[in-house]
């Protein structure tokens, strides 16, 4: 039986798992290079005044002040601390999403092309959890490298010459346990963020096109959808993000049994509870302005670039 022109067109337009992973990864790498300075500022603000109730002298007054001081004292290198591991992390997380979503859709008997809120959220959370689990050592060294400041230190300070030096130093001191430190916080944080980032983006984009508000496959549609997605991520993920930063950066201590453990927190829930008791809800949302300044452009560039790159790739791959 001959296939219809429409089915052939759909087959040609469909991306393979490998293609989706690579194209998503490229988009994420572009985005993280742009947004990394804001994440450096966010990390330092989250660590400032850690577990202190009041009366602490603040090194940084707010996000713009932290940006200016970092630039003056450390230059571009200071603002881009942790960029290497950040690129590797974000590329893998976005690349996992689309293959996961398509497989889950097929598993529940739906078309792989259809955007279903439930399966999209599940795919986002799953891709985030997988990315966080596989990339935990990179998450760990990224947070520590971003927190390090030779001029205006806040929180525990960990100096590493490079990503490789960081990984080898941690492994020599704590073995594999040191490299998976904070993995529960990473899964919680990334699952929460990923569960809303791509689903809210796709839902907004579909609604804008469906209701005739904006045209399909246009830059304005991509930008509007990305902005909504960035706001959703920032609201949902901030407390878990603060817990992740503090768990990764906390100093370690050795127990009587010779076990190396975190000096401040046992797990992300313990971190959130202790932060709340000492600093209130405001402690959970330290660095939220910098977080939004990071997540909004990061989400906009990631998802907009992802759609633009995919459309461009399809035109090059399937010329008419």
Automatic annotation (TrEMBL):
Main location: mitochondrion
InterPro entries linked: MCP_dom_sf, MCP_transmembrane, Mito_Carrier_Antiporter
Protein location: Mitochondrion inner membrane
Any single Pfam family the record assigns to this protein: Mito_carr
SUPFAM superfamilies the UniProt entry points to: Mitochondrial carrier
Topology with respect to the bilayer: Multi-pass membrane protein
Keywords noted in UniProt: Membrane, Mitochondrion, Mitochondrion inner membrane, Repeat, Transmembrane, Transmembrane helix, Transport
Domain of life: Eukaryota
Statement: the UniProt record of this protein carries the keyword Mitochondrion: yes
Solcar repeats: 19-107, 115-207, 217-312
Record carries keyword Electron transport: no
Family statement drawn from the similarity comment of this UniProt entry: Belongs to the mitochondrial carrier (TC 2.A.29) family.
The protein's name: Mitochondrial carrier domain-containing protein
């Amino acid at each position: 039986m001959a296939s219809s022109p429409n089915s052939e067109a759909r087959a040609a337009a469909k991306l393979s798992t490998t293609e989706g992973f690579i194209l998503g990864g490229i988009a994420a790498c572009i985005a993280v290079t742009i947004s990394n300075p804001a994440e450096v500022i966010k990390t330092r603000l989250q660590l400032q005044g850690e577990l202190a109730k009041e009366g602490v002298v603040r090194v940084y007054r707010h996000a713009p002040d932290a940006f200016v001081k970092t630039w003056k004292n450390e230059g571009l290198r200071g603002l881009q601390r942790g960029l290497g591991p950040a690129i590797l992390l974000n590329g893998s997380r976005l690349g996992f999403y689309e293959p996961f979503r398509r497989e889950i859709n097929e598993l529940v008997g739906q078309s792989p092309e259809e955007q279903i809120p439930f399966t999209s959220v599940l795919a986002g959370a799953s891709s985030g959890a997988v990315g966080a689990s596989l990339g935990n050592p990179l998450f760990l060294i990224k947070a520590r490298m971003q927190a390090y400041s030779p001029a205006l230190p806040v929180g525990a300070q960990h100096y590493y010459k490079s990503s490789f030096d960081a990984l080898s130093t941690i492994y020599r001191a704590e073995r594999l346990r040191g490299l998976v430190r904070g993995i529960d916080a990473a899964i919680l944080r990334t699952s929460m963020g990923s569960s809303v980032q791509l689903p809210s983006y796709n839902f907004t984009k579909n609604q804008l096109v469906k209701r005739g508000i904006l045209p399909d496959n246009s830059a304005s549609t991509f930008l509007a959808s990305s902005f909504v997605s960035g706001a959703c991520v920032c609201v949902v993920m901030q407390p878990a993000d603060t817990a992740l930063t503090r768990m990764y950066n906390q100093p370690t201590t050795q127990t009587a049994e010779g076990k190396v453990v975190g000096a401040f927190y046992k797990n992300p829930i313990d971190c959130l509870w202790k932060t709340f008791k000492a600093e209130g809800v405001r402690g959970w949302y330290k660095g939220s302005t910098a977080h939004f300044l990071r997540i909004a452009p990061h989400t906009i560039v990631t998802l907009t670039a992802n759609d633009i790159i995919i459309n461009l790739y399809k035109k090059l791959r399937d010329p008419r």
